[in-house]
């Protein structure tokens, strides 16, 4: 398989799945030489003030820029914990009390979150098209049917069924992507209170995380369906719109090209 062309990959995903946001390529840096090389070769931005991880992703998915964050630029204790930049403390447990029945459960909730291996130096987020090398995770902010298509193709190419995602009561964008990285499997998760408010997630959006090394086969399957069937849709094969809201038995919503018989 040839090396992935991330520019063409993003163009195909944006066009055929009707994405509103750029797919976010996430890179976790544990090696100083790799971080130095990235910093020299990849044009990037740094937050002026400490931000949450999901706020940094706004730059990637909405503004189309690459954002590099070190520990000093991450102003969210939830993300600091799952990135391994802080330990479990009383403040972190108390911040989860609203989700839990008591303090003991809150402690178990925090302890049960996915965490990166020790030694993370920095994390970069940027549009998939600007990725230098294969990203660790690709994060999609998308709607229900876009998620259905992305995950359906992931399940087919990775031979996974049923698909069992993982969601925390908090740490959605940070923890949800760390799970995909650690487990080398896709993830599907809702916005937490922080990523909804601070991260500016719309009410109808859902999160999908795909391991970076799985993206090439996923996109190849999407392209194959377009080439063979005429469109990206799984729900209505041959249609260009992913998730066309037309009942297959409806006798009224039917279109035909002039000079041809109507579709069966």
Count of discrete alpha- or pi-helical segments spanning 4 or more residues: 10
Total beta-strand segments:
6
Low confidence ranges: none
What is the helix/strand order?
HEHHEHHHEEHHEHEH
Distance between the termini: 38 Å
Lateral strand order in the biggest sheet: 2-3-1-4-6-5
Shape: globular
| Strand residues, percent | 5-15%
Tell me the structural class.
alpha+beta
The helicity comes to 25-40%
Largest sheet: 6 strands, antiparallel
Mean pLDDT: 93
Radius of gyration, in Å, reads: 20 Å
Concise structural overview:
By secondary structure, the chain is of the alpha+beta class. The chain has helices spanning 6-16, 32-41, 53-61, 77-82, 90-94, 103-111, 144-158, 172-183, 193-197, 215-229, and strands at residues 24-29, 67-69, 122-127, 137-142, 187-189, 206-211. The protein starts with 5 loop residues before the first helix and ends in a 35-residue tail after the last helix.
